Amino acid sequence: MIMKNIYRRIFSILSIIIVTGLFACNKSLNLKPQDQLSDAAYFKSASDFKTFANQYYGYLRNFNNSFADNPHYDGRADVFGGGGVYGAGINTVPASDSYWNNNYSRIRNCNYLLEKAATFSDQASISQFVAEAKFFRAYCYFELLQLYGGVPLITKTLNLDSPELYGTRASRDQIVDQIVADLEAAIPNLPASILANSADFGRVSKPAAQAFLGRVALYEGTWQKFRNGDATRYNMLLDKSAAASNAVITSNQFALFGTAASNALGGNSTILGDSAQKYLFILENPKSNPASVTKTANHEYLLSYRYDDVSKTIGTNISRQGTQIGPQHKYVNAFLCQDGLPIEKSPLFQGFESYGSEFINRDNRLKYTIQVNNMYYWYGNANYRVTWLNDAADIALSMGKVVKIGGYTNQKWVTERNCPDTKESEDYPVIRYAEVLLNYAEAVYERDGAITDADLNKSLNLVRLRVNKNMPPLTNGFAGANGLDLRTEIRRERFIELYYENFRFDDIKRWHSAATDLVSNTGGTAYGNISAFVSPWPVGIKFKGTQADVGPNPLKPAPTNALDANGQLILDNTARNFSEKNYLYPIPAQQITLNPALAQNPGW
Amino acid sequence: MVIERIGPIITLSHKPKNLKTMSFFYQKKYSARCLLVFLLLVGMVYHAAAQSRQISGTVTDSTSREPLPGVTVQVIGTTNGIQTDVNGKYKLTVNPGAKLSFAFIGYNTRKVTVGDDPVINIQLSNKRSDLEEVVVVAYGTQKKPSVVGAIATVSSKVFEDRGPTNNPIANLQGQVPGMVVTRSSAQPGRENWNFQIRGATSVNGQDPLVILDGVALNNNNELNSINPNDIDNISVLKDGSASIYGARAAYGVVLITTKKGKAGKMVIQYDPSVSQKLLGLQPKMTNIDQWANGLLQARTNDNYGVAPTTDLWYQLANFALANKGTVVLASQIPGNTTGGITANSFYNGLPVPAFLDVKELDFIDVSLQQYIWGRATSTQHNFSVSGGTEKNTYRVSLGYLNDGSQLRIGNNGNQRYNLRLNNSYRFSDKVQLETNISLEQNNIQQPTMYTSGSYSALGNGFQIGLPMFTQSGRPYQWGGVTSPAGLLRDGGDNLENNSRALLNSTLTYNFMKHLTFTGTAGYNVWWQDDRVQTKTVRLYSYDDKYLTGTTAPAGGTSGGSQNYFRANINDKYYNLIGRVTYANTFNRVHDVSLMIGSSYERDEYDMFNTRTYNLGSDDVPSLNLGLSSSLAGFVTNDEQRNHYALGSYFARATYAYKGKYLFEGTGRYDGSSKFIADKRWKPFYSLMGGWRLGEESFIKKTNIFSELKLRASYATSGSQGGIGLYDYLQSLNVGNSNTLLGSALATATTTTGNLVSLNRTWETVIKRNIGIDFGLLNGRLNGTFEVFRNQNKNMLVSVTYPAVLGIGAPQSNNGDLKTWGWEGQLTWRDHVGQVTYSISGNITNSQNKLVYFNGVPALGAGYNATVEGYPLGSYFGLKYGGRFQTQAQVDTYNSTYYAPGGVINTIGIPVATPLTNLPGQNSGLRPGDNYFVDANGDGKLTTGTSAKDMGDLVYLGSDIPRYTFGLTLSLQWKGFDFTSIFQGVGKRTIFRANGSANNWRVPFAAVYQAQTTQWVGKTWTPENTNAYYPNLHSNGINGYNYQISSWSVENGAYVRLKNLVIGYTLPKSLLERTKAISRLRFYISGSDLWEYSKIHDGWDPEMTRTTAGNERYPFYRYVTVGANITF
């Protein structure tokens, strides 16, 4: 009896352990996250879609990813020095490439929203965000197109077993058609205008999408044209480009900063006179220019990566870095003289003989883009402009006369106000009205091989004459009388106006003009001479026979660099080796290893 | 042998209290012997008349020196014998030359030949430690002879006399075969002690499971709070013996058992000690002369041997030599009155190097390292009271550790306070309750700006010659280079307070003779409270001029750097375990036991933190004192909450036949909340067997072995390492997009960066082990040797998919890692006259190979964590050919391997640029530079990218230590004791490649930074062509010469005197007069006193390869004086 009792007890305890164990375990192993949203409960309202779309605005080019070296960087072209390995055409196939990876991850986020939107009940309430997803998908595919040409076309979210993972590359045409289709689908659903003070300011508008379509169609149209592509196709694209840019122009939503048209849209920017060209690029809400003009007066940026002096400063040392870079001689020489003629032809050109002589009688944009000798500029937050009058207070604080003979020092993006390093807050223009105007002029010219004076006056001349009130406009007559080539002049205008906005390398690629543009660099690259940590040899512009060479106040100690035939210092004689294959970046090797169906670009 | 019944309460102590626990088997034998001895005594009477010689003596215990009564003294080969009396004395009449044997149960038998001396005193050594020792195993204990797994045990002895020990793991270094213990820093409380059992088992998390008094630690950091003095013993389960812990057994299991009270008189123990920390190995810094002369040489070499007089650094070096030990203010230099030193001025006839942003040039000849690091004192007090009755035993202990810091500036240190109460109460013969309560407090302080910026105390950015403070002791800055001293002193404190409570109770209920129920409830709770203040530090030039805009360093988002941060972590972990054990012996030869149980454990983690900027006052750090401001980021906060649970069933069966043939099998079925429900549960098992060969008569007859056992095991175990808590659920991140829409930063939602994983499961590690345990020469020589082989066949690895996927792919069970090796331990114990001694050594060799890693054998020059086909942590680099001695060699090399555009070499062969461009000049290779070998013979010098295409890279070894060994010597003579422990590594490759580590390895890697001395006088010059180091350079050629190669990697092998103790125990006779103190011992000990290392760069051989941040905290040696007092 006793034994029986004991066994009963044992069995009951055993079974309690095991049974309660099973129950307790299975149930108490289902644990949900306590501090994260789950996807199943989201996308229930239009605001969910909007919040999801907000992330796309981080995809725009900005000072953090486009100020220094990047695939579109002016420094890889013929603007600053020898172009590095990419501009020199000696880059190699990388194992991986963040631009490839990031764009596909962004495209996935666009596809994700589009898929969620497909099953949403109230389509009208989310049409703007669906349009944004399409715009940004187009934006990312255009990046991929510019970098790699035709790439795999992914228009849905993939899983680990999706066959698309191992698909082939789509053709250039397929990618371009997708971009155009996405943009054309997005345009009607985007707001025609977004007021500067509205909560949606900064979002993509209809004109911004049209301008982007103008850029893409011009890019591909000229790419095909200068590679003997199908004329029907490139003319169609050029037509599309001109029409899209024209739609922006006729919308009257945007105007060049510092013009009466801009004042009409609000704010007074003409008060800055010809220095509007300079202050546009360092326009901040704190006093950043002599006239206290703020960002509300800017009607030139159609789409920008926005910063704010309180809530979002740039965080990259753009002013200091900006002064440590300088363009080549070639860029400075591209500026016209005030008579509208290039320096080779203009009697107004004063040569290089004395410090600053080449700045005389030139396109005013030169003195607002490159620092001029004996003027006063920001240098660090201990040396800044206070009155903007070059008076005693200004001189005392800013770095007066420092721009000696150190070559050409950049001033675009360099603040003038009392601003600590990295705390600048000017916006980064992703699409600027000046570009739209120049796109229009070029698209019309390349489509027809000619452009009317009326078309030039509604586009290119606005840009050219904005800060050069006395310069003659570019007309067919002026060009003819002075033996100027219109295509050269249209391209010159882009070179000058869109400097340091990272168009030049892509322009050279689509123009197929590396053979003439990306040649060995023979001087003029200036390097900021201020830092004690750079060369004690100021390097510069023309040396032989100039003031730097013969005085007064010659350069000491004299540079020992070799001189070229023109008496310019040879700073960097690295040979350019930019060949046909370099017009596209190579597909990262790892991607081909992972998916052998992915063919490498020719020549790599 | 009988498997001890499960019941940790009675048997946790490894020394049985008395002979009661001896088996019936032995008792019978013992009785039989008594009878035999009686008969012998009778027989002896007859022979006595014939004997001519009487000898006598005393038999004592070799350790306690107590007389042993009842020892059988017998003339070998005869029946002549006697037993010792109550005082251990014997008298025996023998023939000259007779051989005597002294035998006593539980002791090793000794044999002595009778000589001329009529007195023969004998000491017998205790054999119990070998045969009766109880080993703590998973869910219970076993007698050592029954153990069939690879289990190493460590007694409390290893924690004694070791000076300040922040983490008990530290003292296990070199003590446990199969266990490799490493640390990454010497900062008090943040040493980051780590250990691996039998090497790497996975590329994912590698933490062995630690179980304290039956309850798992949720996180091995908890060891930081445990007082080593409370530890009674540690068992390390290395093979299938760990497998019963299933999902977490893959990396081995460590069982820690704390000290318990013993029935009897109250024992009060007090162990104070004080230690002095002395600076150990760390790189030495050059003085001004060495630096300046080196720099002159480097700049000259860089420029083709033409001294570049206008070169800034050349000028600076010359200027430094001329002004050594002084500070030259800008105002003293003509033309530099307004601050900022411009070019073309002269001072005492020398050109002044131009630095526009500094107010003076400094050449003070004391390095930062000399200044901030010094000696420190640590103290430790341990106090315990233990005792009890048959019903109730207790042990209460208090521990205090104050570990001082070698950092002389600012507040740095670690304090630990421990209170532990271990109590066992016997309600009845059948019911017993054991409760262990431990309260722990562990406070760590460090200066907030300890690792701040590139010029921190732990960086190498600080320029040589700069003062630590201004002339009147203010924080100092020079041209953007801030002296760390001011930041350490004035930048605020970082305080981390950890409070832990570890509670566990175990109820044991013996239903009947063979059946026991054991229930354990454990609850561990951890609170962490962090208070970090960052103060504004105003910086000054040497002559005390405030440098505007130099509030350093920036910490806030805007509006000033000062801020105050608080964080609270609250982590609750509980574990419930129930099990039933049946154990019985049938027909006296079949020992059978069966245990079955289940457990549930769960962890709840809860953290939040907040940071306030712009405090109204730096004096009183409080969240309340933030000034109101409209600035964004004025207050930031964060919260994290998560949890996981693990449910388990487990069972073990053992069978032993005649105590000779041993079999054991375990099984476990684990379910984890980290997996989707249908992949959640998985079984693990082990099979183990042992053969006590020594018990077989044919071995016994040889009389060689006191123990000989063969063991083998095969097991599977799992790991959840590298798995997120909720990876099977798709979640979205909501947060600030950092994009400005409207007038504010927009909130944005996005998908988390990874696809959800629905089909992954546990990593499963197969473990195989073969071992042998042996005792020879009457147990004086004991040893163990094991061979093992582990395989992780479904290791979770990242699988790379084409990037068009657009999102990270989840890890999948797609890897294969093999680990194999051997380990052994050998102990010799004996005595010579009054001196007893032991020598014990162990060695571990573990190797691994990443058999399959997703099929991607990518590698690069340098350290590679994972390369398919190679061990983890492998280094690849060039094969060093030698050093150019002639220009002709250089020319040949250049013409063979250099082509413009880097077509023929990708190893960075520098090519000369024309002399006309001095600033960017590169001298190209010269005699005195290194050359490398075209290892693959393709006519090029290239670095490959994969194991299939390695270019000229060759395998240079692994960062993971191999042949780790320890050697312990101990001696006792009368009251004196002496112990020394050597520990070391036989094979390891180290290459410090990254960032700051690189800068102290390569002379003048950054010209303006302080340099270390290892190269001084050892660089190539035309006069010293056999020098160890190449030409001095300060430009890109350094990158070429010092790139990873068979020359530049360091040999990480070392041997170190880990511990040395000399102690003296006062004689009992003396202490008896005090009537209070029953034992008093004084000792002096030293740790890390000596080492032999082949490292060239001056770092400690235990140092990590990264030497980043607090890993740079200099290692120390310490000398401890202490006492052990028992009342």
Structure description:
The complex is a heterodimer of chains A (604) and B (1127). Chain A has a two-stranded antiparallel sheet. By secondary structure, chain A is mainly α. Chain A has helices spanning 2-28, 46-54, 63-66, 84-87, 98-118, 123-148, 172-186, 206-225, 231-251, 260-265, 276-279, 318-323, 329-334, 364-369, 392-397, 433-448, 453-458, 460-465, 476-482, 486-497, 504-511, 514-517, 547-550, 589-594; strands spanning 37-38, 301-305, 428-432. In chain A, helix 6 packs antiparallel against helix 7 (172-186) and helix 8 packs antiparallel against helix 9. In chain B, the strands form 14 sheets. Chain B has a 22-stranded antiparallel barrel. Residues 1-50 and 552-560 of chain B have low confidence and may be disordered. At the A-B interface, helix 1, strand 1, helix 2, helix 5 and helix 24 of A face strand 30, strand 31, strand 32, strand 36 and strand 37 of B.
Topology (elements, then pairings):
The complex is a heterodimer of chains A (604) and B (1127).
Chain A: H1 2-28, E1 37-38, H2 46-54, H3 63-66, H4 84-87, H5 98-118, H6 123-148, H7 172-186, H8 206-225, H9 231-251, H10 260-265, H11 276-279, E2 301-305, H12 318-323, H13 329-334, H14 364-369, H15 392-397, E3 428-432, H16 433-448, H17 453-458, H18 460-465, H19 476-482, H20 486-497, H21 504-511, H22 514-517, H23 547-550, H24 589-594
Antiparallel strand pairs in A: 2-3
Chain B: H1 8-11, H2 24-48, E1 53-61, E2 72-75, E3 81-83, E4 89-94, E5 99-103, E6 110-113, E7 122-124, H3 128-131, E8 134-137, E9 140-143, E10 151-155, E11 179-182, E12 194-197, E13 209-212, E14 215-216, E15 231-237, E16 253-258, E17 264-279, H4 288-302, H5 312-322, E18 327-329, E19 346-347, E20 350-351, E21 360-362, H6 368-372, E22 376-388, E23 392-404, E24 413-426, E25 431-447, E26 477-478, E27 481-482, H7 484-490, E28 493-512, E29 515-534, E30 563-586, E31 590-613, E32 635-657, E33 661-672, E34 681-691, H8 697-700, E35 705-719, E36 731-741, E37 744-751, E38 763-776, E39 781-797, E40 812-832, E41 835-853, E42 862-864, E43 874-877, E44 880-883, H9 887-897, E45 930-932, E46 943-946, E47 949-951, E48 954-958, E49 962-973, E50 976-987, E51 989-990, H10 995-1001, H11 1036-1041, E52 1050-1051, E53 1054-1065, H12 1068-1072, E54 1079-1093, E55 1116-1126
Parallel strand pairs in B: 1-7, 13-16
Antiparallel strand pairs in B: 1-4, 2-3, 2-5, 5-6, 8-9, 10-15, 11-12, 13-14, 15-16, 17-22, 17-55, 18-21, 19-20, 22-23, 23-24, 24-25, 25-28, 26-27, 28-29, 29-30, 30-31, 31-32, 32-33, 33-34, 34-35, 35-38, 36-37, 38-39, 39-40, 40-41, 41-49, 42-43, 43-48, 44-45, 46-47, 49-50, 50-53, 51-52, 53-54, 54-55
